[in-house]
Amino acid sequence: MLAVHKTALDAGRFPPDCFPMETITYISTRGGGSPLGFQDAVMTGLAPDGGLLVPTELPLVADRLDAWAGLSYPELAYEVMRPFVDIPPDDLRDLIARSYATFDHPAVAPTVTVGDVHVLELFHGPTLAFKDIALQFLGNFFEYTLAQRGQRMNILAATSGDTGSAAIYGVRGRDRINIFVMHPQGRVAPLQEKQMTTVLDDNVFNLAVDGTFDDAQRVMKALFRDLPFKEKYALGAVNSVNWARVLAQMVYYFYAGLQVRRETGAAQVSFAVPTGNFGDILAGYYAARMGLPVKQLILATNENDILARFFNTGEYQLGTVVPTASPSMDIQVASNFERYLFDKVERDVDRLVTMLEGFEQTGALRVPLTSGSVVDPLFAAGVGDRVATLDTIRRYHATHGYLLDPHTAVGVAVGERFMEDGVPLIALATAHPAKFSQAIEDATGRDLAHHPRLDALKDAPTRCVALPAEVEAVRSYITEQVD
Q: What's the CATH fold of domain 111-128+244-451?
């Protein structure tokens, strides 16, 4: 399993002028290459051997939680991220401060009590989605490192909705960065598409690919595996395959968990997490491994239930992507799942590679269940289908006057099934409901979900190129634009 360490640096907060002699390094889940520092790991994105980069160890922080409970979000972000990052402390503080100065709420990620559920609002950033929390930081970090190294970068991303707009807003207008974002044509919410395609900065390229998100992700990974092309065109990743995304998302688990524990006096908390790509809930898994007292991570999927089936049966088996009311989760191949599997097989590279090769050939893999007939006692899993999603939106609005976006409603619907007395349930609200106004209207019968930032996009000009979901088509387009 993933190693944890406790050193003298773990005794308390780092003083302003302290720079650790050793920071955590990163290795590939597939065993290739030498360990990398944080800057190199982030700039590389996907490991050269096609694996995902993971930390060699995790700090244990249980003895620091009481001191952390009263920190502001930027202060806590510094404490959580510091052991993982190999840049000077003052530079890290500055990057964090600038990243979260763009958020509308002073708490950055506030938790509000709605009935019996504590809703963690992650939608107060520039694009009104949880992806902003990681991608505002990542955009600033890219700019910082590229300026230090005198380099340029061409970001290539695949999105099922919110990652694309959040990534674009994180790097738009930056001198040393171009960004190419692929989205599945006709398969993202209209407002999500508008948020991407109305950004007309010269360094932003939107690509509508003819296929599903999984097709776009397949193209992206193939181009990252083409090492000569990746090196020549300085490809960088902003999808949750990039470790910085996961690290930045770990912070809000600590922030909400510590706040709710302090308010309720509870010993543990549980989190309900709507997820399709496994990146968001993976951040919670690492936070729990570091010492955050988590009773359960409740994994919620829509009808595209490959992850829910895995945690309930031990079998990870491909199905057909089904369009749903929560389109950002309409995914079958979860790109972050490999990081979890790496731990599940106790970091046995040969065993993991064999499993992944088998999955490529058959579309299925299996892990043994534990003595309790579960894959992992930390995880519970369930499905919130369209009926449950719309019913949850309707109930919470009628009972509490609170609007849930459809992805958040999936998480709440599944989370309610696993609620326990004495264990507060924190539900991750991953997007503002106005981003999915049609689902809100379908649930309530009323046009309730608006935000002035989104309403302003209605008649805004757009720019987008349609391409087939083929590696060579996307490669040629990037080559033409960069050259």
A: Rossmann fold (3.40.50)
